[in-house]
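wait is this the right file?? whatever heres the structure
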């Protein structure tokens, strides 16, 4: 139960980061993450009544505000494995990204619905912005509960930073997805796993 609670908090933090990124300064990823957190927390509070009345509206929020700022291609490559990904056709890759994206977005939406006034603190830190990949540390501060240490992994595309992994207490979310799908992909192939994820997504939409 503790791990489930932590994972929900992690996905909440991801949502808070991604949702307001359009208003943030992409040249400074730390400033971006700090500003986004405040704006998303405010949005959740202001729209709590509407979301309570129609929980499915959270999907519209996630799809509109999160998708442009997540590197799902990078995430998919990690989950499938670079060897498998390199051998897959462009159509197969596109199909996997599409279905994996739906799966992740719904996980984010669930986390948003479980928002209970957490805050995210970014300690002063130096980041080498000359690199294409960076890691930023933060802490989820929870009332009357254990705080959670988080690291954000971002990759730079031109002048935009995209988040592709979150590390919770030393455990990578991408590694969690890898553990869930890697053996299935090796045994059944990427196309079969795509079909399984698609079926799961359909059931989740019901």
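ok assuming it is, sequence goes like this
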């Amino acid at each position: 139960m503790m791990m489930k609670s932590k994972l929900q908090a992690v996905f909440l933090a991801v949502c808070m980061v991604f949702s307001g990124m359009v208003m943030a300064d992409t040249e400074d990823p730390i400033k971006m993450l700090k500003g986004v957190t405040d704006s998303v927390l405010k949005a959740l509070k202001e729209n709590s009544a509407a979301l309570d009345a129609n929980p499915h509206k959270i999907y519209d929020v996630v799809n509109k505000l999160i998708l442009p700022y997540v590197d799902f291609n990078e995430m998919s490559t990690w989950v499938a494995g670079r060897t498998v990904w390199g051998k897959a056709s462009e159509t197969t890759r596109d199909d996997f990204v599409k279905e994996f994206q739906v799966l992740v977005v719904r996980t984010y939406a669930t986390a948003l619905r479980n928002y209970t006034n957490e805050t995210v603190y970014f300690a002063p830190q130096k980041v080498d912005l000359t690199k294409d990949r960076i890691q930023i540390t933060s802490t989820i501060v929870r009332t009357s509960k254990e705080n959670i240490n988080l690291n954000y992994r971002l990759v730079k595309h031109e002048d935009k930073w995209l988040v592709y992994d979150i590390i919770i207490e030393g455990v990578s979310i991408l590694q969690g997805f890898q553990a869930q799908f890697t053996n299935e992909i090796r045994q059944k192939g990427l196309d079969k796993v795509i079909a399984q994820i698609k079926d799961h997504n359909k059931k989740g939409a019901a």
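The first strand starts at residue 119 and ends at 121. so i think its the right one actually
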